[in-house]
Amino acid sequence: MSAQVHFVGAGPGAADLITLRGRHLLRNADIVIFAGSLVDRKLVECHASTALIYDSAGMTLGEVIEVIMDAVASGKSVVRLHTGDPSIYGAIQEQMEALDELGVEYAVVPGVTSAFAAAAALKQELTLPEVSQTVIFTRMEGRTPVPEAEQLHKIAALGATLVIYLSVSMIEDVVEQLLRGAYTPETAAAIVSKASWEDEQILRGCLADIVHKVHEAGIDRQALIIVGDVLAARREGLKAKSMLYDGSFAHGFRGIVT
Ligand code: SAH
Domains, the chain, ranges and CATH? Predict the structure, then answer.
């Protein structure tokens, strides 16, 4: 029997960036509980026109679980809609554990995380050969603690491409921590606010001027900080080509092109 309860990633914001599976589930849902602080109500209403809709912004974990349990008891289908992909800062684990304890089946449907919507907005590959082959999704410590080994200044030692969630309101601290690692004031940085929304905003700069640009634009939430040399590769004319499409590089689907 397929699950009655689905955790669904809504994608970064635009209504057509949800998966087909997610849209199908929303269309057929009796109950939708969505994270109103980050998911646009219009997206929910557009895809789930017949469902009873709850905004979880003002609800406790216990209340969310109660709504799910009541729905399950009366044979209804529930979609718990999270922004982006539910596995990234989605707080779904605690909900899944509560359902495990109550013996309720559920399934998870992935979504486009905002990191990828931001890369698309920037028209930027995050992994360029010889520049960076590693992307780190992370955050500054806020009210939610971050393990000691993952403090931003320690992660910064690697010099990889960074996508920093939940931290734009602490941009000064972010820059201070990054400069303690492998990054310099000249390292390229970008801010993407509300990626894929109508009022999306992009700021490009470097660690030396990004704080000023963020303050000037008045961005203090729903934005990602992206940092790393990949952002400057195009500007600096670094011809970082992948091996995959190089004629002298044979692989399983193609011999050497002469
Ligand atoms: N699960 C979500 C992240 C939730 S945490 C995801 O996969 O994207 C909330 C943080 O995500 C925000 O503080 C912001 O850093 C980022 N975020 C969410 N949506 C965004 C968007 N459309 N544009 C830029 N950043 C976004």
Answer: 5-109 (3.40.1010.10), 114-232 (3.30.950.10)
